[in-house]
Design goal:
Blueprint: H1 3-8, H2 22-48
Amino acid sequence: MSDDDERLGLPDGHRYDAPESDETRAGKEWAYAILGILVLVLLVLIATGTVQIFPG
C-alpha cells in the first residue's frame, strides 16, 4: 500500500474527496438559493389559495 493510499483510505474503508473548488461551491450556493426561493413562492401560492392542493 502506497503513502497516498494510506492517506486517502481511513480505517473504516471510506475514501474521502478533496475539498470543492470555490467555483463549484458558488454554483451550488446559487442553485440552493434559487430552489429555496421557488419553494417559498410555492408556499405563498398555496397559503393564499392560488394553488390548491386538494381541489374540490
